[in-house]
Amino acid sequence: MKSRKVQEAALASKDIPDFLEALDAYPGKLQTKYAAKLLLLTFVRKCELIEAKQAEFDVDAGIWRIPAERMKAGQEHIVPLSTQAVECLRECFRLAGGSEFMFQHGALDKPMGASTLNVVFTRSAMTGSRRMA
After folding, report:
1. What is the pLDDT of residues 50-79, one digit of tens each?
2. Domain positions in the chain
3. Region label for 126, one of left (φ > 0), alpha (ψ between -120 and 50) or beta (otherwise)
4. For 14-132, which CATH class?
5. What gap in Å lies between CA 111 and CA 104, rounded to an integer?
């Protein structure tokens, strides 16, 4: 008999400020924190974010063009960027250290690991939930 994967509860909108506070206190890399914030600011899928390349962004125009080959539907996706997202991205460009990837992990030629953000969200949600209780 197959075991069913347990899905984590969604973060309620009223809990987002506490979650963001817990995320700010998270002891991990600054680049990882920015990636987590950008997921909340852009509503893209995790794989689209962690595989993002610097060339996809036009922060002056406030646009992120995700190429069709990286999209599930096979069509280019244009993401409008808020002021907060642009601020995060400007820091990410600075932190990228010459990598084509916005969020590299270890070697400059590889994107952040797929499970990295899962760990951040789990730990920050646990810390935030203590404040929410």
Report:
1. 999 999 999 999 999 999 999 988 999 999
2. 14-132
3. alpha
4. mainly alpha
5. 4
